[in-house]
Amino acid sequence: MISSRALGTKISRGWQCWRCSFSTSSIIRDAETRPPPLLAQLRTDMKEALKAKDKTRLNVLRGILTETTSLEKESKGVKTNTQLFKLLQRRRSASLNAAKEFQNAGRDDLTDQENQQIGVLQGYLDGFDTTSADEVVAAIQTAIRELQANGVTPKRERVRAILYRSGGAFEDKIIDNGLVTKTIHRLVHEVAPSQPSPVQA
């Protein structure tokens, strides 16, 4: 068993001694609330679209950034990659519906316009690094093994801290947070059954 002092030195990648200054809540909070990096990229892309006179891309980006600004004023700002991903999905869905309506109305010009916007939105959506259910399980199992290898009892907040730390498996990933929580509960309980088991839905 590694001493707590040695532990603080050995597992220094993103966290300190868990007995003294290990703060899982701050690591998770920072990881989940810092502005998505893509927002800054969208602003840069909008400037480039303006210079290039790319009307379609410019309109799409203006719409996205206008909506994010509006949400911030309502205290519902886009603070995570998942929120931004859902916003883009929502706008893509609206464009798909509009394209169908224009097509049914025989407005090929407006249909083409919507399809071009859909292409821009899809390009950004494809750039997100999404995480499957199997990948969630594998990442959590790896985090648990890391704790065990260092002589630390796996606990839910410790596992989450490893996953969301800088360079961690879930950094800047699109993840179903509900799935993450349930899977951590289940897998941690399997290796440390003395902890409360997850509440069954």
Labels describing this entry:
single chain, elongated, 201 residues, mainly alpha
SSE order and pairing:
Layout: H1 4-10, H2 24-33, H3 37-52, H4 55-73, H5 81-104, H6 108-126, H7 133-149, H8 156-164, H9 177-191
Helix pairs in contact: 2-8, 3-4, 4-6, 5-6, 7-8, 7-9
Task: Walk me through the structure.
The chain is mainly α. The chain is built from nine helices and no strands. Helix 7 packs across helix 9 (177-191). The chain is elongated and about 65 Å long. The model is unreliable at 1-23 (pLDDT under 50).
In short:
With 201 residues, this protein is mainly alpha-helical. The protein is 68% helix and 0% strand. The protein has helices spanning 4-10, 24-33, 37-52, 55-73, 81-104, 108-126, 133-149, 156-164, 177-191.
- How widely separated are the two ends? 37 Å
Query: How can the largest sheet be summarized?
Result: none
Strand count: 0
The share of residues in helices is 55-70%
Molecular shape: elongated
Mean pLDDT over the full residue set: 82
From the structure provided, what is the oligomeric state, counting identical versus distinct chains?
Answer: single chain
Spans of at least 5 consecutive residues whose pLDDT stays below 50 are 1-23
CA-based gyration radius: 22 Å
- Which H/E pattern describes the elements? HHHHHHHHH
Assign the structural class, choosing from mainly alpha, mainly beta, alpha/beta, alpha+beta, or little secondary structure: mainly alpha
Q: What's the total helix number?
A: 9
Percentage of β-strand residues = under 5%
